[in-house]
Write the structure tokens for this entry.
Amino acid sequence: MKGITKRWVLNTFGVILIILCVLTIAFAMIVQSFYYNGIFQILNGRSSELVNIFSDYDTFTDTARDYIENFPDKELMELMVIDENGEAVITSTGFTPDKNQEMPDYQAALSSSGNFSDWHGKISSGENVMALTRVITDKSGKQVGAIRYVVSLEEADRKIFISIFVVCLVGILIMFFIFVSSTYFLGSIVRPVREISDTAKKIAQGDFDARIDKFYDDEIGDLCDTINYMAGELGTADKMKNDFISSVSHELRTPLTAIKGWAETMQLDGFQDRKTLEKGMGIIIKEAERLNGIVEEVLDFSRIQQDRMVLIMDKTDILAELDESIYMQKERANSENKHIVYEAPEILPPVLGDRNRLRQVFINIIDNALKYSSSDGVVNISVGLVDKNIIITIADNGCGIPAADLPKVKQKFYKANQTVRGSGIGLAVADEIVKLHHGTLDIDSTENVGTTVMISIPTIEEQPPEETADAEEGI
């Protein structure tokens, strides 16, 4: 035995056993006291009648002999007549009294204020008995003799033993049923826990398809459901991680292939075409920038995961960063026959933010909008001020996001559409950057209709000129 079973046996079962033992001992003492006290009451009642019998007598011995001969319960107890010298002279059995038999009750009765005393113990024959002696005195108070009642306790002890045996048997049965029911109960806990432990080891070793059978609809069942859910989520995360590695590898391989190909072409002997050289250098620079963007995106994600991303916060004109981001994507949109519709609003309050990071967010969202839009698609960008928050809305009429994938698109490594290039962490990075600006990034999408991304950034509450001047004068 080990673990839960051992602790239960030592704690619960052991405590129950001790309680039952204590109750059994207490019951035995109560039963013995009940029987012994009953016998004492009978003996005391019989001895009390001696007061009347010996109130008027000729000689003590004759009166005592008549009392013994007419005593109705001679079969239940033995009577002894003790003379004034303390010797037993007559017994109800008819046998000669044992002169060597000790009589502690008689000795105690002599010094007792009530002239009687009782005792129980074993006599010389080994029999357990209870004895009560009442001293008889004359009118002057002088001792003339004593009557001793002796009752065997063997029958009482037998009844006491039977009672205790029955109680012990009941206690054993109780312990047995407790043990059986508790063993079943512990088994209903230990077996699932062992299976959970075995399954958890499999999951830890990478077997995310391992599942636990749900035994009961209770806390153990809830734990099984949680472990199974965890395995599913870990499996999904592992698949997303593998997809991410595959996607990033593909994303890195494509520009590297282009760079390597053009570099080898320009190394060929006799390569003199200036126009082709410029085209090749342009592609190499463009693909190198693309590589740099992928690497920076992965590094940003790593910084966010380790809480090491540092923002350089300053008063920022968010419209300027948005304008620059749109300008950077205009050429691409034109080359892909897609359209960006944007009408710059009036001047808006500044925000406290990192210019480069905000521009990174805008570029990422606009890039996604163009990426998932078909030829001749339209990306609408609008900006507004709502409750001291600047709301930037970027909406496209592309393929949209399925309802099942929408809650997960901001998770790391997740890609709803595996056919489109991308690492799957750009949106997760953008969401974290917006959160670091105390803003929100919300996505609403309908499949085959389009996607709308709403970015909310709080503005800076600037002091009025008068208050600023007063503050400077106070300084």
Remarks:
- Residues 467-475 have pLDDT under 50 and may be disordered.
